[in-house]
Every structure is written in structure tokens, then in C-alpha cells.
Amino acid sequence: MNLYRAELPYRLSRELMCVNFLITIPSMHIPAQLKYIILAIFFTLGSINAIRTTKGILESSKRLEQTDQEVLSLKNKKEELETSIEYKETDDYIEEAARNELNLVRPGEEIYIFPEDLATKEEEVLENESTELDLKTRSSLVDTKDTPPIEQWKELLF
Of residues 118 and 73, which shows the higher confidence score? Predict the structure, then answer.
């Protein structure tokens, strides 16, 4: 076979050396065939392993990004809560809460109550404490909507 290759021009001998892999395997000895088959199996297994590793790395990076975003949002929420706590510890908040929730006033201040405010407060009382109020109290609260303002003032003050 070497004599045949030596006689052919250089270009033709190069083409014969680049014969298709499938054609050269049947003409090879069994140990050479096994060598190529084993190499192909190792290459395939290595490729599969590389793909799995890359996929795992990508999934881990996505989880890391999600965790970083969660940490950032929790830090923001913590800052908001700390600011809220600082405000609620001030005298301004305590005074505001006393005025709005407990209806307290400073000495010397005058309170003006408007009928709309009374109706709103009565509705809130009915909604919040409807189970605790007896029938007489409910009827008196409902009846104040129809009574003139002077009557409501008398009931409120006396």
C-alpha cells in the first residue's frame, strides 16, 4: 500500500488520507476500532457532563440573583420599619395619636363638632361594636341622624 501511495501525486495521496471515518473503521483491526469507539464514548460522556455542569452553574446564578433581590427588599423594609419606629417614639406622633384615636385635646383648646363628623363616628361605632351594643343604644344612634343638631348637642353635652 505504501508503494501505491508513493506513486500517486501528492494531492491524490492527501485525498486518500482524508477518507471518511466510517469507511476506514471496517478496514481497521479490532483493537484500533475499539480505541475509536472508546474515545467517542468518552467524548460523549464528557460533553454530557460539561452540559450538566453549565446548566447547574446557570441555575445557581439565577438563585443567587433572586436571593440578592430578596435581601435588598428586606433591607428596604427594615429601613422603613426603623423610620416608622423612630417617628412613633416622638412626641409629635404621640400627640397625633391622642388627638385622632382618643379624641383628646390640649388644655384651653376648643373642639368644634360638625354633624357630618357625628354621623361618620356613629357609623364607625355601629360597624365596630355592633355586636356589643344593645337595641336601645342602636336605636338612639340611628335616631340622631333624624334629630336636629341642637338636640344632638344636648345629648352630647348632658
Answer: 73
What's the rounded Cα separation, in Å, for the pair 146 and 82? Answer: 47
CB 138 within 8 A of CB 126: yes
- Asked whether residue 84 is domain-assigned, the answer is no
- This prediction has a pTM of 0.41
Q: Which residues contact 115 (CB under 8 A, 6 or more apart)?
A: 149, 152
Structural domain contains residue 128: yes
Rounded-to-integer distance, Cα 73 and Cα 134, Å: 48
Give burial (CB, 10 Å; 0-12/13-18/19+) of 122: middle
Q: How many domains does the chain have?
A: 1
What string of DSSP letters covers 58-90? HHHHHHHHHHHHHHHHHHHHHHHHHHHHHHHTS
DSSP secondary-structure letter at 49?
Answer: H
Range of the domain at 120: 112-158
